[in-house]
From TrEMBL:
InterPro entries: Ig_E-set, MoCF_OxRdtse_dimer, Mopterin_OxRdtase_euk, OxRdtase_Mopterin-bd_dom, OxRdtase_Mopterin-bd_sf, TAT_signal, TAT_signal_bac_arc. This is Sulfite dehydrogenase (Cytochrome) subunit SorA apoprotein. Its cofactor is Mo-molybdopterin. GO terms for biological process: sulfur compound metabolic process. GO terms for molecular function: heme binding; molybdenum ion binding; molybdopterin cofactor binding; sulfite oxidase activity. Keywords: Metal-binding, Molybdenum, Oxidoreductase, Signal. Residues 324-442 form the Moybdenum cofactor oxidoreductase dimerisation domain. Residues 127-296 form the Oxidoreductase molybdopterin-binding domain. The lineage of its organism: Bacteria, Pseudomonadati, Pseudomonadota, Gammaproteobacteria, Oceanospirillales. Pfam families: Mo-co_dimer, Oxidored_molyb. Residues 296-315 are annotated as: Disordered.
């Protein structure tokens, strides 16, 4: 995947806001925007108003990019309860989609109760999930010897493996694109990195015989299409053979040593870490080995696809100009402290989080307290295994009282860093890997 388009287009929007906020609003929203909303904040705010809104002076105000919405106002995490999930923000309840506030992702290994939920359809009724009767069928035109396995068969016939694997929805960060893209308005919380235990997808596929012409696998799950139509699949995606055959690609029955949570695919799911979460099929019932790119629901553009070349925001992109997303881009989160924290002047503040880079590793991690003008290097650990996120930690010191933001920027092993502003616009709002930032009040 080569995807770090220039940010000139988004910068253009900021410039337009700086020059003529009303014209910018009319262009983006087709109308003027209420100044009391977060969006409206962009245009009416003088430095004084901004300081009042964030609750203190802003020592590095002269370095703040024009049109920046302070993180203190841009973020909110209204709690909502979903059974078995604590503190997640529900974005949609039909189907259920819920994301994790960043401070709840501070554990090295993401606990099941805080793992985000992304459902395209209606999950199988909990009472209809019979683990002992569950069958996984393996077939497809490039399968030599189609077979069916119970979960007990899988456990008995194949070696067990445990890996910690990052799963991030391709649409994580979508809410920041302008003009807005349809779909769940994920902010930063459609990512998790629990451990998964199961058998290698490769071992199962090889036991069923992979024909020479095999190029792709596809999955089918037990969930129903949101319309209720039994002839439609909510989603049926897959990966090229090379990804399917990697050591870390699993058919998993356990997460963090326990049953996979119901909303995350119990009793069986595919996990292919580092790629859009949509390739990791939940409530897994069937795998097909294909002699062509899998053509299940949401395999075709524009689903989980981005334009081959950068496009102007709001463009109509013809289907043939899209490419399917594979490895996810470099990204990081600040998981401690929580955004909005008060901090005592003169005391060093510990800051930490995680960084990940799809199929690659993260090579360097930096933080800034002056809106990206200068950066300091953070400590960065090796991943516990390939495709797991990496812990980073550092301490920062503030020169005087006031409002600050801590920005975090990861750089992958090939030298690509996270952009400070939202990357290239795309019709479905995928792959936003802009730097995460938190608000800090120093007094
Ligand atoms: N059967 C099935 N598998 C699925 C989905 C789904 O709706 N149905 N959603 C996919 C998408 S888009 C993502 S991002 C991940 C989310 O995994 P999670 O809900 O366990 O966090 O599951 C993927 N697997
Ligand atoms: Mo997703």
């Amino acid at each position: 995947m080569t995807r770090q388009p220039p940010d000139t287009r988004t910068r253009g929007i900021h410039e337009l806001y700086a020059e003529d906020p009303d014209a910018a609003d009319r262009k983006l929203w087709g109308r003027e925007v209420d100044p009391v909303t977060r969006r409206g904040f962009l245009k009416r705010s003088s430095l004084l108003a901004m300081a009042a809104a964030v609750g203190g002076s802003i020592p590095f105000a002269d370095r703040m990019p024009g049109g920046l919405i302070p993180a203190a106002l841009a973020q909110s995490d209204e709690p909502f309860t979903l059974e078995g999930k604590e503190g997640l923000t529900v974005l949609n309840d039909r189907p259920i989609n819920a994301e994790t506030p960043p401070h709840l992702l501070d554990d090295d290994v993401t606990p099941g109760k805080v793992m985000f939920v992304r459902n395209n359809g209606i999950p199988p009724a909990m009472e209809n999930i019979d683990v002992d009767a569950w069958q996984l069928e393996v077939g497809g035109e490039s399968c030599e010897n189609p077979q069916s396995f119970s979960i007990a068969d899988l456990k008995e016939r194949f070696e067990h493996h445990t890996y910690q694997l990052q799963v991030e929805c391709g649409g994580n960060g979508r809410s920041e694109y302008v003009p807005s893209a349809s779909g769940n308005q994920w902010t930063t919380g459609a990512v998790a990195c629990p451990t998964f235990t199961g058998v290698r997808l490769r071992d199962v596929l090889e036991a069923c015989g992979i024909k020479d012409d095999a190029v792709y696998i596809g999955y089918y799950g037990a969930d129903a299409h949101a319309s209720g139509d039994p002839n439609k699949d909510p989603i049926s995606r897959g990966v090229p053979m090379e990804k399917a055959l990697e050591d870390e690609s699993l058919i998993a029955w356990a997460m963090n040593g326990e049953d996979i949570p119901y909303l995350n695919g119990h009793p069986l799911r595919v996990v292919c870490g580092g790629w859009p979460g949509s390739v990791s099929g939940k409530w897994l019932q069937r795998i097909v080995i294909r002699n062509q790119k899998h053509d299940g629901t949401k395999m075709g553009a524009p689903s989980y696809s981005v334009p081959k070349q950068p496009v102007a925001p709001g463009s109509n992109v013809p289907e043939e100009d899209f490419v399917t997303i594979q490895s996810m881009p470099v990204k990081s989160l600040v998981t401690f402290p929580k955004s909005g924290i008060d901090h005592a002047l003169g005391e060093a503040m510990e800051v930490r989080g995680h960084a990940w880079a799809g199929d690659l590793t993260v090579k360097e991690m930096h933080v800034s307290i002056d809106f990206g003008a200068t950066w300091q290097k953070a400590e960065l650990k090796e991943p516990p295994n390939r495709l797991a996120w990496q812990r980073w930690t550092t301490t920062v010191e503030f020169p005087e009282p006031g409002y600050y933001e801590v920005w975090a920027k990861a750089t992958d092993e090939e030298g690509r860093a996270q952009p400070m502003v939202v990357p290239g616009w795309n019709p479905k709002g995928y792959l936003n890997n802009a730097c995460h930032r938190i608000a800090v009040q120093v007094a």
